[in-house]
């Protein structure tokens, strides 16, 4: 059996060390494509470590595409022939302890534990509507907010962040300090890309936590990713053809449509965007979320990432927009290396946002431009004023600098992890369980619930809505060739309150017959 | 001589009453086009009121286009034949006391008074660069802000607001309150148009201070006017032809250009946008600043406003974007009725911003859509998230609601008024005076300085820059057919510090020989 020594683990945790050892063996071809790895239990026993340690290492390797699992058969080495053994990123990956976010790696092994009630739970949001994630949503009055007060409803489509997750006390303290100490900076126009202090903080954070090395001037701040998309169209060209994932986050396709640029919808296979279809589409720019696809939850494996970079490198003017919108909320293992960090050809534009990690109502996002695009941005678009208020830019810079952001992220991960586990264990313990399969639950703030039912997806959603539960079917997110019946539903649990869980499950049970 | 009774002035001030009486006589054709009005002194004596009261009323009537003045000849009634006597707006104008902003109305009658030094003046901004107002400005490094710290320089091109004008203490208090009391609202997604409370506050403010009656849902918040322009292109159409003023605020033309929409440059005459040229251009949408044109300082008189509304009404799909960016800073008389408030055909989109009144680094602007366009906005663009942070929207709403905004505006007006008077009186008392004419100094934060010189505009600007003074020539703002020599320079005094005034004048003197 495969054996590794832990004597040279250095400052790495056992899980990190094991992950690296296996990965290096795969990269060095000591472990070959298709080779079966030891079962978690026997491997743990053999190495003298706990099962959970092996689980975590395997989960990380699966999410990065080095391993794949076959239910009831075990874990196997992926075909990484696209990936050269000396792959740059393997030296770059910054492994940090995310132990609080890593509890279990086996994708279906949820036990019906009793979870302590979340003492902090109070009467929270009154069923906010998640405009962001609901296809075709229209607000004709213009006055009903996404946090409007319609009939009481459990909402599994909302991207609304939870009040208890905003760090009000530390934020208030920092705002007070900034308003006292930084008055001159606050009223001084920042560069078009945003406040330098903030961009430098973000660059440091990305280096420490995401293995991304960039100069602050490559980072461009904007009031939400939607605004940044619009800037990118101006930067890359209205005459370019843009490609989006199908199914996908429909707002992105809509933004391209509203800007009257050509937009192609590229189908996905089990590894993400299909390269042949992409090639055939004639697209110049691919917009995707490789870390965690919405709504399928897919994580694009490393091999496909290289394939996509290869596609971009094959022609001038091709670019990849890597939308890393919720990479901070991976539940198992380390975040996968961003495509940005393994891109040596200046092809990847990385986008991320604080609207997921801080509050959806704090409009601070950023993009990282490859150097030659950053130059073009300053040459052609620097007449634009930065759209984010200085007040929030300076506050956020201090929030990152003094370590509060890291602490906050850890707290958020634990919170969502706990909530996800609670929801899944309640499903497992319910009458829904025999008819439910849970998929892609290891990243982000949603998972896929596959339900056995004789009804169409639309019928299920309508029945649920009538009973007071808002849930979206995966089939609703296809841009073309919509399958009518897939029986896969998107469970966005970020706005779900603990006391709503049993009711939500009961309604789902009633809605599938 | 013209005589009015003040017995029925009601709650109006004397100036307001006199203004209304004369306006009503002009509208009723009791006073005819070309008719000479009494001199200020004799009119005041005859009515038993002070000269300043007559001055204020005349200044208001001039700025609204009802009167015009001929230097050394007196005041005359304008030709308002375009304006029906029952004009809707005449009932609507909300006259409020702006007495602190009204000091003198005669446009050229500046005496060399000694002004008390501004006790609040401290070492303020270190020569910020005004990216906004400088044609062709590029920031290749992306790191030098518009408040960068290049060589010490007096900057007469900057739109940078002054640190002493931001109401830090009240703002800090309100932020504290909001963070304590409104946590739920702060993290709840607002409607796509923005926080309702803020939009309602703005609607009330507009009604009270600008004579504009709108429903809150017609108001759409955005992170800066530039962002709103981009939304408007999406709303009105990429296939439409847009028209901008020439000369004009170059950023606007650039934004249209960057969105790849057709953009025509319309020449101005002494009343603003030339209607025949506009008609000939084939434009669908006219973007203008009738309250205070940048850089000429022109105020579009009421007759031209009606002509432009007539142009818009003549064809479906024609619209007027009324950019009211600094209407709050008129120095004499009441703001002119906005085109929005006299538009009965739903043709005017009104845009205004808090970046001028509060701080250029607070990115809060808004637009008012006519009802049918608001409907279209909610139908087609409501998937966009509002780009302004909730935190600042709620703070600003409270700032307006509790009267702080009104107080702040009054303080700002006095401050800029004092600064303008000081600058002008120093010019009058200097060796520059015999070679200088000051124009259009009654509105906004800049005026035009016409200088007698044998040099070209470019040579003057270059000489000044070498000596440490940054000033822009009006001729630099023409989009086409740029006149090489006009000898008119744009003096933006918002960022000028008192202790820089004499030095600025000295450099100007040296730069014109």
Describe this structure in words.
Two copies of one chain form a homodimer. The first copy, chain A, is an alpha/beta fold. Chain A folds into three domains: 14-81, Winged helix-like DNA-binding domain superfamily/Winged helix DNA-binding domain (Arc Repressor Mutant, subunit A, Orthogonal Bundle), CATH 1.10.10.10; 98-120 and 188-401, Aspartate Aminotransferase, domain 2, CATH 3.40.640; 131-165 and 407-511, Aspartate Aminotransferase, domain 1 (Alpha-Beta Complex), CATH 3.90.1150. Chain A has helices at residues 14-27, 40-47, 51-63, 88-92, 168-181, 183-187, 196-210, 225-236, 250-258, 275-281, 302-313, 371-380, 390-401, 404-428, 457-467, 501-511; strands at residues 67-70, 74-77, 154-155, 219-222, 241-246, 262-269, 272-273, 285-288, 319-323, 348-353, 365-368, 436-439, 446-451, 469-470, 472-473, 488-492. In chain A, the strands form four sheets. In chain A, strands 4-11-10-9-8-5-6-7 form an eight-stranded mixed beta sheet, with helices on both faces. Chain A has a four-stranded antiparallel beta sheet with strand order 12-13-16-15. The first copy, chain A, has a two-stranded antiparallel sheet with strand order 1-2. In chain A, strand 12 and strand 13 form a beta hairpin. The longest helix of chain A has 25 residues, at 404-428. The first copy, chain A, starts with 13 loop residues before the first helix and ends with a helix. Chains A and B meet through helix 5, helix 6, helix 8, helix 9 and helix 12 of A and helix 5, helix 6, helix 8, helix 9 and helix 13 of B.
């Amino acid at each position: 059996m495969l054996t590794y020594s832990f004597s040279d683990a250095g400052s790495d945790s056992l899980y990190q060390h094991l992950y690296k050892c296996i990965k290096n063996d795969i990269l060095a071809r000591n472990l070959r494509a298709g080779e079966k790895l030891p079962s978690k239990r026997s491997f743990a026993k053999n190495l003298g470590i706990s099962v959970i340690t092996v689980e975590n290492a395997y989960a990380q390797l699966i999410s990065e595409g080095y391993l794949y699992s076959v239910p009831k058969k075990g874990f196997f080495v992926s075909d990484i022939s696209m990936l050269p053994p000396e792959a740059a990123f393997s030296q770059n990956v910054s492994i940090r302890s995310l132990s609080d976010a890593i509890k279990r790696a086996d994708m279906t092994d949820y036990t019906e534990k009793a979870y302590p009630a979340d003492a902090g739970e109070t009467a929270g949001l009154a069923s906010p509507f998640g405009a962001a994630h609901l296809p075709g949503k229209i607000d004709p009055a213009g006055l009903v907010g996404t946090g409007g007060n319609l009939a009481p409803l459990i909402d599994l489509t909302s991207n609304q962040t939870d009040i208890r997750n905003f760090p009000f006390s530390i934020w208030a303290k920092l705002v007070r300090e900034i308003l006292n100490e930084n008055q001159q900076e606050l009223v001084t126009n920042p560069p078009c890309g945003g406040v330098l202090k903030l961009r430098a903080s973000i660059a440091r954070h990305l280096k420490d936590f995401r293995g991304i090395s960039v100069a602050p001037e490559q980072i461009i701040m904007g009031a939400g990713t939607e605004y940044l998309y619009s800037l990118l169209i101006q930067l890359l060209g209205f005459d370019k053809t843009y490609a989006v994932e199908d199914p996908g986050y429909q707002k992105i396709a809509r933004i391209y449509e509203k800007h009257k640029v050509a937009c192609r919808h590229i189908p996905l296979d089990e590894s993400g965007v299909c390269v042949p279809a992409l090639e055939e589409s004639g697209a110049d720019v691919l917009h995707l979320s490789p870390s965690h696809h919405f709504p399928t939850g897919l994580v694009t494996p490393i091999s496909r990432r290289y394939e996509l970079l290869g596609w971009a490198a094959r022609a001038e003017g091709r670019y990849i927009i890597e939308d890393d919108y919720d990479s901070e909320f991976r539940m198992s293992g380390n975040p996968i290396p961003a495509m940005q960090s393994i891109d040596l050809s200046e092809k990847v534009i990385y986008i991320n946002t604080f609207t997921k990690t801080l509050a959806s109502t704090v409009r601070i996002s950023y993009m990282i431009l490859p150097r030659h695009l950053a130059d073009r941005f300053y040459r052609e678009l620097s007449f634009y004023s930065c759209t984010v208020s200085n007040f929030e830019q300076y506050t956020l810079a201090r929030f990152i600098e003094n370590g509060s952001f890291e602490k906050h992220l850890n707290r958020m991960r634990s919170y969502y992890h706990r909530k996800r586990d609670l929801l899944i264990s309640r499903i497992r313990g319910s009458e829904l369980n025999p008819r439910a399969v849970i998929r892609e639950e290891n990243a982000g703030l949603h998972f896929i619930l596959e339900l056995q039912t004789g009804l169409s997806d639309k019928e299920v959603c309508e029945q649920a809505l009538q009973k007071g539960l808002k849930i979206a079917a995966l089939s609703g997110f296809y841009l073309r060739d919509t399958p009518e019946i897939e029986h896969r539903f998107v469970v966005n649990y970020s706005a779900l309150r603990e006391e709503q869980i049993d009711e939500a499950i009961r309604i789902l049970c009633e809605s599938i017959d």
